Amino acid sequence: MSKFDEMKKVRDEVFALIGPLSDYRNENKYFAVLGEGSHDSRIMFVGEAPGRNEAKTGRPFCGAAGKILDDLLASVEIPRKEVYITNIVKDRPPENRDPLPSEIEAYGPFLNRQIDIIQPKVIATLGRFSMDYIMRKFDLGFIIEPISRAHGKLYDAQASYGPIKILPLYHPAAAIYNQSLKDTLKKDFQALKVL
Length: 195
Ligand code: URA
Fold this sequence. Notes:
Blueprint: H1 3-16, H2 22-27, E1 36-37, E2 43-47, H3 52-57, H4 64-75, E3 84-87, H5 101-118, E4 122-126, H6 128-137, H7 147-150, E5 155-159, E6 162-169, H8 179-189
Parallel strand pairs: 2-3, 2-4, 4-6
Antiparallel strand pairs: 1-3, 5-6
The chain binds uracil.
Uracil is lined by residues 47-51, 54, 60-61, 65, 87, 173.
């Protein structure tokens, strides 16, 4: 099966999922957000969960946090269409609350399949939930540090398809009203230039 067909299969399953957030999705006429970008990307960004704009459009990071992500990508001259951007949780949690462990458990297997399809060399996590999930998935749970210490560090890990690097980053939403955090994110993004 081609990467496109495999991803389509994941998409169809996510769209048909009757899970912890599907009633909320249907009641609000929201979309599930699978992810977007190049299926051949070396870099995969993993956020937390769609916000309102994302659930309305079905596109990841298209609201205020997405604008920051776009600025950060531009600062390292990486075109957005050349990376792959997704989230752990594919449906919007009510009122943008943190995802529950049960939601991460329900949607995590879809993210795992997306990683296996794209086979990124670098997984850049956005925020502490995706950092925790990805570090544990790649057997680095034992060295998880608070994001205030882990951000910007490169961690070596072993994927089923070969060695990868994990780059924990602050969530762009945290930088919307915080210029110093945006400067930190900008500095941390520099690592993506050389990978
Ligand atoms: N925040 C996220 O974690 N993901 C999105 O897609 C948008 C905002």
